[in-house]
Amino acid sequence: MNKRFLWYPAIIGVFAALIWVILQKGQSLPISHAIAPAVPVSATPAVQGWWRYLDNLKHPLGLLLLQIIAIMLTARLFGIIANKLKQPAVVGEIIAGVLLGPSLLGWALPAFSSFLFPVESLKNLQFLSQIGLAFFMFIVGMELDLNKIRNKAHDAVMISHASIIVPFFLGVWLAYFLFTRFAPANVSFLSFALFMGIAMSITAFPVLARIVQERKLTHTPLGIMAITCAAADDITAWCILAVVVAIVNAGGVLSAVVTISLALVFVVIMLLLVRPWLARITAAQMAKGREKAAVSGVFFVLLISAWMAEVIGIHALFGAFLAGVIMPATTNIKQLLTDKLEDVSVMLLLPIFFVYTGLRTHIGLLNQGDLWLVCGMIMLVAVAGKFGGSTITAKLMGQTWRQSVSIGALMNTRGLMELVVLNIGFDLGILSPEIFAMMVLMALATTFMTGPLLDLVLFSEKRKKLMPV
Q1: Each residue's pLDDT tens digit, 316-354
Q2: DSSP annotation string for 297-308
Q3: Please, what is the angle between helix 60-84 and helix 89-99, to 10°?
């Protein structure tokens, strides 16, 4: 036998024996009687035996990991079911979030729901969901192709702005009738009406883009127009949202003017100064093969932009979105960043946001017939404003009726972006739990109807072509 193999048991054995000797000698040392540090009030006595492992589940980190596991499994399951029903996975994930909240799990298994999602753990989920949203909004900003918007600027801007102003008007009009009964205490009509308007006006650009891609419409005139309209809609709607948040946070007219002025200065600096500087830096780093340095610089810009937007008072998500918009298009940095961020944000962190939204959605609050009537009215106004406004404007701009209805159906998609707006309104105390639940249901319904409505239009067109003349 090779003598080198004998060294292993010799070294291990000698030092193990020395450790044992020291531990035995240490048992005879006198125990200090100094005053022990005070035990925190929240600390619980150690549980003996096998039960202590169940007690470990109550530890914040153990509980957070268990929550993430449950969220990922449920979101993935319902995402697969949604795909089987020819719906975007985001529809299933939103439904999963609602079902894990008090609307189903908290109602059917209240003890288990309280164990899995105790109130004190929701802050951790909120922070993780906000990080995921910041990354996702950054990706959404990068996906916007400003060149396409410029090429079809006239038609796209007309359709997208009409699809904002019409539902915005209807949302403000509806707020006039809902304010007295449903607005939280100490909330002004201005704040309530503006948020109802912007909530009716949102289009989910990422969901729309994926629906267009799944139906192989990306390079068709309809697909290009729809994506361009949604991109212009996204930019406009988020700018309006930033102004609305600034007005709500400022409280007074003068403070609102100052906040909006700072926001405009911030946007100008990002577009005219940071954008060309970032393009030069990333191009230089990528040319030298320093991908990590380039990515590090981009993340720094992302964090600074989100922080500045939060400090100004227009919300960190707008800063993350703007950071994505200014990403240089001359290098492959966009694809590199998307590859690094998309899977983590979409597969891991966004489902946490859906569940966090679901935990705040109490469908059980709609326990009276007139409340469901109000919910139906909200859905009717949302569809009439977004679908109707987009369809009619597209027809006025020279599109065929088939293309106009298809554009209207796609622009009516709200999905994730609607939930982001609703959560901002809920955090600011502008939306009551009842209105929040109704608006979440509206977001689900309008997103769910997009696919079937689009398929119906395309099917009728194919059938028309096959009919004999």
Answers
A1: 888 888 898 888 876 577 778 887 787 888 888 888 888
A2: HHHHHHHHHHHH
A3: 130
